[in-house]
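User: My instructor asked us to take a sequence, write out its structure as tokens, and then describe one feature of it. I'm not sure where to start. Here is the sequence I was given:
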Amino acid sequence: METLTLTLSPRELTRKKVKQLRREGIVPVHVYGHGVESLALQVEAGALLRVLSISGRNVPITVDIDGRDGESICFVREAQRHPVTEELLHVDFLRVDVTRRVRAEVPIILDGLPPAVENLGGILLQPFATLEVEALPMDMPAAFHVDVAVLEDFAMSIRIGDIAVASNVTIIRDPEEMVARVVPPRIEEEEVEEEDEELLEGEVPEGEEAEESAEEAG
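Assistant: Let's start with the prediction itself. The structure tokens for your sequence are:
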């Protein structure tokens, strides 16, 4: 796993004044958690965005703070963005103890093309995109890569228990839950619906049937 580092600086501007920082390409941040009081800090937006593009919320970041000795291992706990422009407004970092296990959501990445999709026209389903994982901070997986090329037909599936994980990593979820499978296309269902519609269109309204029967009887 790639080691991510970020250098933060003390911040003097707070509340509404932080708009000035953002205009200068600086993002206000907070660091809080194990062994540290809540710190109001700031960082250059470009450097922060580069780290966030890799880290997500489950990859540890080595944080240096100007004017303080030592490094902190942190996870991103919240990243606020503007609802319209998507501009990064604020980030909270949680400092952790590297000797204690933590929990985080690890993304699931499906690799390959299932033969049941390519050859049978099926639809690949992925019920959930992340798995909650418990591990030491420096052992936290960046992602789970799942090879779906093994799904040759509609009867096959991949379950959580099929994912290979290190002995020091625990997935907090039922190992029997499905991670991926391929289901048949909906062509047959659509054909049945079309046949039903044709039958309905061919039916004669009850009123007309009664009139025809009366005419025949007369």
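For the description part of your assignment, you could build on this observation: The chain has two domains: 4-98, 103-188. Try explaining in your own words what that tells you about the chain.
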